[in-house]
């Protein structure tokens, strides 16, 4: 199996927050670049980042869901 190719064409919706400046820059690039889409730009960027993070490492399959909400700051006691 080629790591560069997704194993499925099924899509999932992911909601995330980006800075307003980044979103505006993305929209401007997509607006002025024929055949480019927001999804395409973001998928390409994530794929490049994943390749870099995974390089030389093997990650086991998750056994549970990701935690919901913002991560806790280190060294801050819960109230």
Helix-strand blueprint:
Layout: H1 20-32, H2 38-54
Describe this structure in words.
With 79 residues, this protein is mostly helical. It contains 2 helices and no strands. The longest helix is centred in the middle third of the chain and has 17 residues, at 38-54.
Spatial shape: extended
The number of helices is 2
Give the terminus-to-terminus CA distance: 49 Å
Query: Helix fraction?
Result: 25-40%
Major sheet characteristics: none
- In percent, how much strand structure appears in the residues? under 5%
Structural class: mainly alpha
Average pLDDT for all residues: 86
Total E-strand runs: 0
Helix/strand order: HH
Return Rg in Å.
17 Å
Which parts are unreliable, with pLDDT below 50 for 5 consecutive residues or more?
none
């Amino acid at each position: 199996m080629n790591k560069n190719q997704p194993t499925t064409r099924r899509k999932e919706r992911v909601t995330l927050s980006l800075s307003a400046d980044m979103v505006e820059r993305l929209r401007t690039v997509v607006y002025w670049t024929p055949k480019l889409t927001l999804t395409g730009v973001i998928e390409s960027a994530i794929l490049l980042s994943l390749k870099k993070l995974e390089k030389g490492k093997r990650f086991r399959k998750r056994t549970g869901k990701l935690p919901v909400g913002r991560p806790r700051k280190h060294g801050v006691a819960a109230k």
